């Protein structure tokens, strides 16, 4: 039994508002569900960011040429299926080493052998680990550039996002860059369907965390007694996903029993949305200066280039 997973689950379910950390969605099945989410019509962030990346990468190439940066080490946080890095590597020819960090090691290994085939000259390193924690990384002599696409940063509380950005700065070192995808604040009529798709894939993704607890932590969640919900909390600027108990029930996990009232929820994910300027302020508190921002049509998604600055350190 994974001790850290167990402790995190028990601690989360003992809270008055029961909660589970979203990083545990991504076992093999969960990663596959997430890939399916990315193909949904309603889930605009994936295709919007992917559509914007070739242009971003072309402009980055010119930017680094002007800055006389001839060699880059690209470090992706939460690399998952490695779809996003391909358009970047295709354009940004000064990348000679790629480091992929992800919590789901198996998923990543499969994806990285595909990448090696597509980019035979590239040095590829795969590191399995929890990038939400500070970590040590081997830096090459190239200029490090972090890559954190998908708006995964939205899973953190804003204060945790500042801490993550500060840690990333420490990991990447002086004179580094960070390329980030940020989902923007917008009408709930666009936001909510993205997390309540008509095919029910997001519901399967959300409930998979219960399946995983049942299997790995000796739990007995009855999946039919919980329903998926996702609402936009406009006040806090975040999508909240929950699993709502359909009845009064008791669930046991590794011998510990948890009571659920009818309608009580487990809060499984926050997905914060930021105005670009709002995010820039957050980044600058963590010692990063905004260099460029690219916006998709109608401003529905942003990609930002940050540079590590002396101020704020
Ligand atoms: C992977 C965190 C960016 O917040 O949009 C998708 C996860 N959750 N559908 C997001 C997710 C439900 C996704 N991130």
Automatic annotation (TrEMBL):
InterPro entries: EgtD (IPR035094), EgtD_Methyltrsf_superfamily (IPR051128), MeTrfase_dom (IPR019257), MeTrfase_EgtD-like (IPR017804), SAM-dependent_MTases_sf (IPR029063). Its EC number is 2.1.1.44. Residues 6-307 form the Histidine-specific methyltransferase SAM-dependent domain. One of its GO terms (molecular function) is L-histidine N(alpha)-methyltransferase activity. It holds the Pfam family Methyltransf_33. GO terms for biological process: methylation. Keywords: Methyltransferase, Transferase. It is an enzyme of class 2 (transferase). This is L-histidine N(Alpha)-methyltransferase. It comes from Pseudidiomarina terrestris. The lineage of its organism: Bacteria, Pseudomonadati, Pseudomonadota, Gammaproteobacteria, Alteromonadales.
């Amino acid at each position: 039994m994974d001790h850290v997973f167990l402790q995190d689950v028990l601690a989360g379910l003992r809270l008055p508002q029961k909660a589970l950390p979203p990083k545990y969605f991504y076992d093999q099945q969960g990663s596959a569900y997430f890939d399916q989410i990315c193909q949904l019509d309603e889930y605009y962030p994936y295709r919007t960011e992917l559509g914007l990346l070739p242009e971003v990468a072309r402009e980055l190439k010119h930017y680094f040429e002007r800055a006389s940066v001839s060699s880059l080490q690209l470090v992706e946080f939460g690399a998952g299926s490695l779809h996003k890095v391909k358009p970047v590597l295709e354009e940004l020819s000064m990348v000679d080493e790629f480091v992929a960090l992800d919590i789901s090691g198996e998923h990543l290994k499969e994806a990285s052998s595909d990448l090696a085939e597509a980019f035979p000259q590239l040095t590829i390193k795969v590191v399995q680990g929890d990038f939400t924690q500070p970590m040590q990384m081997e830096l090459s002599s190239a200029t490090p550039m972090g890559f954190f696409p998908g708006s995964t940063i939205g899973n953190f509380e804003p204060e945790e996002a500042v801490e993550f950005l500060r840690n990333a700065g420490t990991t990447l070192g002086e004179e580094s860059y960070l390329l980030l995808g940020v989902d923007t604040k917008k009408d709930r009529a666009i936001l909510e369907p993205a997390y309540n798709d008509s095919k029910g894939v997001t519901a399967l993704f959300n409930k998979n965390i219960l399946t995983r607890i049942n299997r790995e932590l000796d739990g007995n969640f009855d999946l039919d007694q919980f329903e998926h919900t996702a609402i936009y909390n406009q006040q806090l600027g975040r999508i909240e996903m929950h699993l709502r108990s359909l009845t009064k029930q008791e669930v046991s996990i590794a011998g510990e029993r948890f009571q659920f009232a009818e309608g009580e929820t487990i809060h499984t994910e926050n997905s914060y949305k930021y105005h670009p300027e709002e995010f820039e302020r957050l980044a600058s508190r963590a010692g990063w200066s905004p260099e460029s921002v690219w916006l998709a049509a109608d401003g529905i998604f942003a990609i930002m280039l940050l540079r590590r600055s002396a101020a704020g350190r």
